[in-house]
Amino acid sequence: MRNVLAAVGLMNRSATISRETKETCIKLSLDIDGGGVEDIRCEESFFTHMLETLGRYSGMDIELRAKGDNVHHLIEDVGIVLGHALREAMDETPVQRMSSQTVAMDDALVSVTADLADRPYVDIDCPDNLYQHFLRSFAMASGMTLHVMVLRGFDEHHTIEATFKALGLCLHDALQIREDELSTKGRVRRSKEC
Ligand SMILES: [Mn+2]
Q1: From the CA of 133, how far away is ligand 1's center (Å)?
Q2: Which of 68, 142, 169, 178 has the highest count of CB atoms within 10 angstroms of its CB?
């Protein structure tokens, strides 16, 4: 539990989104101040494993039920919904915003840098187009800046898994609450009302 105010019920950084289209059906509950508890059921076992990794390393609770007419639509739409949920759950509470993490997994060495402000921008190295698509959709929907650099690695599985671990660690640190906004211009995220 990273947030004492959430622990005593004085703050709620969570969001629940249901999204159904002709291509996918997604139900997601996200709690930033959870304990990294994942309850994920979707049709792709490696994608499920990566989302569990993201939850565990970020310390966010992720509850997900997702189905899709194909894996591309499933991965893309889960990224969009997860990004929207993160943005909604963060709201305007000041946070550390920025984090950079480098993770090794055997041959793979991956560096992830994120800034959780309203500055949607991505530059992503990824050996798999679908997982690059997920990361891009997630980051753009959340509004964050996200850079992923694969420093080395030849096993795609290791490289993708190291990326999700590093992203999770970035989110863990960047979501830490501050008393004031880390900015010279004040507000860096819009409230839901704006
Ligand atoms: Mn697409």
Answers
A1: 7
A2: 142
Give the whole-angstrom CA distance, residue 58 versus residue 171: 5
Q: How far is the CA of 115 from the centre of ligand 1 (A)?
A: 24
CA 134, CA 153: separation in Å to the nearest integer?
20
Of 132, 30, 25, 163, the C-alpha closest to 86 is 30
Of the candidate CATH numbers 3.90.1150.10, 3.30.230.40, 3.30.420.10, 3.40.50.300, the domain formed by 4-174 belongs to 3.30.230.40
Q: How far is the CA of 76 from the centre of ligand 1 (A)?
A: 6
- Residue 73 Cα, ligand 1 centroid: separation in angstroms? 6
> With 0-12 CB in 10 A as exposed, 13-18 as middle and 19+ as buried, what is 10?
exposed
